Amino acid sequence: MITKRRLAAGLCGLAATLAAGLFPASAAADEPTAQEPPKIDLVLDVSGSMSARDVDGKSRMSAAQQAFNDVLDAVPDDVRLGIRTLGATYPGKDMKTGCQDSKQLYPVGPVNRTEAKAAVATLRPTGWTPIGLALRGAAQDLAGGDATRRIVLITDGEDSCGQPDPCDVARELAAQGTHLVVDTLGLVANDKIRKQLSCIAEATGGTYTSVQHTDQLSSRIKQLVRRSAQTPPVVPKAVQGSAQCGNAAGITPGVYTDREEFGQHRYYKVAVTDGQELRATVSVGADRAVNADYGVLLRAVSGEGQELVRGSDAGSGRTDVMSSGLRYVYPEKDTDSDDALPPHTVCLEVSNSFSAPDAVKRTPGLPVELTLDLVDAPDEAADVAAFGLGRGWVLLGVLAVTGLFAGLIWGWLTRWRVAVWRSN
Q1: Measured distance CA(47)–CA(49) in Å, rounded
Q2: Which residue in 15, 286, 296, 400 has a CA-CA distance of 20 to 30 Å to 222?
Q3: pLDDT digits (tens, 9 = 90+) for 307-357
């Protein structure tokens, strides 16, 4: 008679067999490479307006200090954090002097919580609001190495200096290709403030958040700090495309960042060898107001200018990013000779059809992210299943095996139920 214990043991064994058959063990992973700890610079507005008492019955400055204390207690050990201020030292009315008022309060590095809290506790609402200057200073605070970088700007107002323009500074930082993200938090719900802080964040792929309470401010900064600790496996490399294929920069598998003006064409050169498949994707971000109707085109062309393959996408209305991709196998046709073909030069052409109103600034260009990979091309024998579930054969096989084992399990359960019924 089949007992419950035997049934359970049999089901466990069957599940293990099924898992081993459908999901074979992969090869041992390579040893992980050490990554630099992420860097974060908290930029705090200490201008005179931070003395206003409209956040949970206390001043904006007091609310920010309390939130900073909470954040410092929660900073992960693998994060390097610093603090920069703006408007903290000059109480006068001279604009030239006030617009140079930004300093590093606590250097970016491992956090000594006692020292950092003591430094924050000394701050008093004082001067002007040179946001653009502070952003440049924060970028310098984070300079060096290949770690991911994040600036978190906390302010209650717009930039009061005008030069440098904060949005222009944010675009400059994004154009440097140093994987720098700027997140902005506004302590006052105001359309002008929202517009400027959103512009800063969007230019670097960051976020804008309006906060009105201390716990909201603390929670949001903690969230951004934790997000920074999730270091991406690949840091994009800065590259400059060319207007022509002949003198284009050579690139290898990886992720690259560049800037492209409205309607511009940029070329990047790739060496593809016999039996390789080139895979490429491109994303063009709309980090400023653009007109409706736009598109992005990615082409692979030979050194002689012959188009090999293309990918494109288009849209209309509001967008944040447009993407496209392509695949190209070299050689595309079989050859009678067994000799390997010489390396083949392929140029990737990236172009866009974005446009914008006359009032929108053209420089720097739109952010471009290009991903490239070279893999072994599928051989003729495996060509049918080379593209996975797209051809349906793998899916059909999985369904067949699943149905077979489901039938066996159902039959086993039926036999057990009959045996139990007869024993009673």
Answers
A1: 6
A2: 286
A3: 999 998 888 876 777 888 888 887 655 445 455 455 688 999 999 999 988
